């Protein structure tokens, strides 16, 4: 050691001279998040300014980790500065009154005590919107609430967003001297003051749809309690089991945790949710029909009841005016999202009453399905435009959107649904024939309540649901005023191009791609030759995974930014992307399909794989070294809110059809019977169930939508590419995760029961079985149920798909046909079902 040694007393003096090392105080975690959010900062940019990682900052803000040293001081300084800038301006000092004679205290009577003045809460406002949903902006002017400059307008007046406008505190009145009070008996305990953060739920409007008893709707991102509807039992033998092969319900048990008996108490709506719901007292939609008397129109609401009023004039323009005046629409699903427009459905009779043509082949007098819309020269289109209304580029067609240029910044837009022109004849909709108008309103209203107000096909509605729950932009406060900023966890509004290996062959980026340079991702279509023991089995039984793609999307890490090209990258299972690697050396069970190819065959050389496939290869024990990669370093669980809302919609609908969430755990036989009777339930609920299934699958398919229409030339861009949700890698990651999940379960099934699947089609797996029912292959020798493929209604669990005699299955395999395609009772099932 060099230098002069420091004596003990000198070291102590140095420590004392530096002063006390008290930790810099920080606000509570909830206040930290509130300050950052109200100031308009994202977690990413805040973490960058503090020179820490996003995960470290998240732990700081949530209180999971206590910042120390310079980082703590910098964080405290930032929060202090934000709080100072968000603080309301001090009120102007009151003028000093002229001197007055001092009263004699003996002659003055004390006035009754006044209630203390409360802080003025910010008023929740709905900012004006343009027809495309963007916010109306103008020159900065004093806000009518807080007098601070704002570039936004609400009903034409300058105003801030409710959460960012902070009126000052009303000053208290000066104290008045009073005589000493006389003693009084102690008052009774005051009732508790209601919390400001949880306002009371507004009373339900008589025009609002009521959900079935088994249904429970939750706010996006909130855990929902399991449905507790009483189980309904189908007809005897509904599960396709014979009396001799059906075990008693009491003899079956599962080696798993019992379901929770109580659910957590549901939280009330937040301020913005309550305000959004109050804007639409009439509900999301109306079905217009001709009155039973044959004179005039009647409107049926989402709960099937009749509206008190209907359009007085029988013109399309009058219908649009009426829908806006009656305040139809749906509240936003995200704080920074936008409300849903009113939907008006026109029955065939109402269509004729309004003077609109029926579907046919005459382009001048009828609606021609091939064209998709009435010609712009058609008299009905001219009547709408003459009334001051505008049509989008889709024109007046099955799903027409009619709007008017905003007046004083107020959005005016109504969507039409015309079943007579094929609006509900395809696109995932399976509407029962000759459904009365009240029942059609209840059907579409149930879908609107649980999923989203229909915007077109179920696939289109699914994409709209994604962006409704993950809006791309929000209002951000800056020194110069308000501007548009990105919502944390969402994708950019204009999207971004994917990597060359991920795009379809007609995409501009694929024109110079090598022949084997494509990331091929499709669901399984695989079968194999039977073993001698399998040929001897009397039956083949199919099990289907409930909502497999939806289950795979939960908490799945997806790209939020464009691809970055890297050579010889180190594999990171938390980074979504496409990787060039050789998986041909991985040995997998030949009695199971390979998880790395769509046809289940073993890879023969290097190929492009998604992160999900490579992570699974490592799980199987392979050593993976990619030679090339297109990686997304900004990522997150983009589809998780979409997954939660659709999952809850599916569970609620199944409960309404007599299959509650916990039935398979308590009575597997009753569950199989109830599932067999589902299609004999309420036709409207059955149609909603089919629409929810198609919404989930259609959404994933739309992420790689190819060009449509005649005249397209490969290499040209098409409109879908500009959507924030168009990303083939997202589709690949969802499908690959579903494939990996099923392969993992099939491996465990083989280890648990000795049974290997003989065929797989997408999410349906077929097994040789001693009997024709699901329990014949799910029951262990000790009479307990296996958990490798878990019987249940929740997405990701399995249900009985159907069974066939093994002789019939053997013939199908000999013909080269996948028997999983023919397992559904009653006919052929496609991979898209």
SSE layout and pairing:
Layout (H helix, E strand, L loop, with lengths): L7 H10 L11 H11 L3 H8 L3 H9 L6 H18 L50 E6 L6 E6 L2 E2 L112 H8 L6 E6 L6 E4 L15 H10 L16 E5 L1 H6 L25 H8 L3 E2 L9 E7 L2 E8 L19 H14 L7 H12 L3 E6 L2 E6 L38 E3 L4 H5 L2 E7 L2 H6 L4 E2 L4 E4 L9 E6 L23 E5 H9 L8 E4 L3 E2 L3 H17 L6 H4 L1 H9 L6 H20 L25 H26 L5 E3 L2 E6 L5 H4 L19 E8 H9 L19
Report what the structure shows.
The chain contains 21 helices and 22 strands. It has a 6-stranded mixed beta sheet, with helices on both faces. Strands 12-20-21-13-22 form a 5-stranded antiparallel beta sheet. Strand 20 (759-761) and strand 21 (764-769) form a beta hairpin. It is globular, with a radius of gyration of 32 Å. Residues 1-5, 93-124, 166-251 and 255-266 have low confidence and may be disordered.
Global outline: globular
The helix tally amounts to: 21
| Widest sheet: strand ordering | 5-4-6-9-8-7
Beta strand %: 5-15%
Low-confidence stretches: 1-5, 93-124, 166-251, 255-266
Q: How many runs of DSSP E, i.e. beta strands? A: 22
Rg calculated over all Cα atoms: 32 Å
């Amino acid at each position: 050691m060099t230098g002069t040694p420091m004596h003990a007393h000198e070291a102590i003096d140095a420590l004392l001279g530096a002063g006390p090392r008290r930790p810099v105080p920080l606000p509570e975690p909830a206040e930290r998040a509130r300050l950052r959010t109200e100031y308009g900062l994202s977690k990413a940019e805040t973490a960058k300014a503090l020179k820490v990682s996003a995960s470290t900052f998240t732990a700081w803000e949530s209180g999971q980790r206590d910042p120390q040293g310079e980082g703590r001081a910098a964080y405290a300084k930032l929060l202090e500065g934000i709080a100072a800038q968000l603080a309301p301006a001090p009120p102007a000092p009151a003028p000093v009154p002229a001197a007055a004679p001092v009263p004699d205290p003996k002659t003055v009577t004390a006035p009754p005590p006044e209630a203390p003045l409360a802080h003025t809460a910010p008023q929740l406002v709905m900012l004006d919107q343009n027809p495309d949903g963007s916010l109306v902006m103008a020159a900065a002017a004093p806000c009518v609430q807080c007098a601070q400059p704002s570039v936004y307008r609400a009903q034409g007046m300058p105003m801030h967003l409710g959460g960012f406008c902070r009126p000052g505190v009303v000053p208290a009145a000066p104290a008045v001297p009073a005589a000493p009070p006389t003693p009084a008996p102690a008052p009774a305990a005051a009732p508790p003051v209601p919390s400001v953060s949880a306002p009371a739920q507004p009373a339900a409007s008589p025009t609002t749809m009521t959900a079935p008893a088994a249904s429970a709707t939750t706010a996006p991102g909130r855990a929902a309690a399991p449905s507790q509807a009483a189980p309904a039992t189908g007809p005897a033998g509904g599960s396709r089991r014979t009396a001799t092969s059906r075990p008693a319900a009491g003899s079956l048990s599962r080696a798993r945790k019992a379901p929770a008996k109580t659910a957590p108490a549901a939280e009330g709506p937040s301020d913005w949710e309550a305000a959004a719901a109050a804007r639409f007292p009439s509900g999301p939609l109306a079905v217009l029909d001709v009155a039973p008397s044959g004179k005039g129109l009647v409107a049926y609401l989402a709960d099937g009841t009749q509206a008190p009023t209907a359009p007085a004039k029988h013109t399309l323009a009058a219908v649009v005016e009426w829908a806006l005046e009656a305040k139809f629409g749906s509240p936003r699903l995200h704080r920074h999202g936008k409300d849903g427009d009113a939907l008006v459905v026109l029955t065939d009779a109402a269509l004729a009453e309004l003077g609109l043509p029926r579907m046919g082949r005459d382009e001048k007098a009828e609606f021609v399905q091939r064209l998709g819309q009435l010609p712009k020269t058609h008299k009905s289109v001219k009547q709408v435009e003459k009334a001051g209304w505008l049509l989008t580029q889709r024109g007046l067609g099955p799903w027409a959107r009619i709007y008017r240029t905003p007046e004083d910044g107020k959005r005016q837009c109504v969507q039409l649904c015309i079943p007579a022109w094929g609006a509900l004849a395809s696109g995932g909709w399976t509407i029962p024939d000759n459904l009365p108008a009240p029942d059609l309103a209840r059907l579409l209203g149930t879908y609107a309540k649980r999923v989203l107000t229909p915007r077109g096909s179920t696939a289109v509605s699914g994409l709209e649901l994604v962006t409704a729950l993950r809006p791309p932009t929000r209002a951000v406060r800056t020194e110069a005023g308000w501007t548009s900023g990105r919502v944390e966890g969402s994708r950019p509004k204009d999207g971004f191009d994917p990597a060359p290996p991920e795009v379809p062959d007609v995409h501009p980026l694929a024109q110079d791609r090598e022949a084997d340079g494509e990331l091929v991702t499709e669901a399984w279509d695989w079968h194999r030759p039977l073993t001698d023991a399998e040929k001897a089995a009397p039956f083949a039984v199919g099990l289907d995974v409930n909502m497999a793609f939806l289950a795979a999307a939960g908490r799945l890490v997806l790209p939020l930014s464009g691809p970055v090209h890297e050579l010889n990258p180190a594999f990171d299972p938390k980074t979504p992307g496409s990787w060039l690697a050789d998986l041909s050396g991985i040995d997998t069970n030949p009695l199971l399909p390979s998880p790395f190819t769509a046809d289940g065959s073993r890879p023969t050389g290097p190929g492009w794989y998604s992160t999900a496939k490579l992570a699974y290869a490592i799980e199987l024990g392979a050593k993976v070294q990619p030679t090339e990669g297109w990686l997304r370093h900004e990522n997150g669980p983009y589809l998780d809110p979409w997954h939660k809302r659709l999952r809850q919609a599916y569970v609620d609908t199944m409960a309404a059809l007599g299959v509650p969430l916990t039935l398979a755990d308590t009575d597997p036989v009753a569950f199989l019977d109830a599932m067999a009777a589902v299609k004999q339930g309420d036709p409207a609920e059955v149609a909603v169930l089919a629409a929810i299934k198609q919404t989930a699958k259609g959404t994933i398919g739309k992420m790689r939508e190819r060009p449509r229409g005649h005249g397209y030339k490969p290499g040209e861009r098409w409109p879908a590419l500009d959507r924030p949700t168009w990303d083939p890698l997202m589709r690949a990651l969802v499908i690959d995760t579903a494939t990996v999940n099923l392969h993992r379960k099939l491996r465990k099934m083989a280890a648990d029961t000795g049974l290997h699947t003989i065929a797989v089609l997408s999410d349906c797996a077929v097994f040789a079985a001693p009997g024709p029912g699901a329990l014949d292959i799910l029951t262990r020798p000790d009479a307990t149920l296996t958990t490798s493929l878990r019987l249940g209604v929740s997405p990701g669990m399995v249900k009985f798909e159907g069974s066939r005699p093994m002789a019939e299955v053997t013939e199908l395999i000999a013909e080269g046909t996948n028997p999983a395609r023919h397992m559904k009772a009653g006919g052929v099932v496609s991979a898209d079902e």
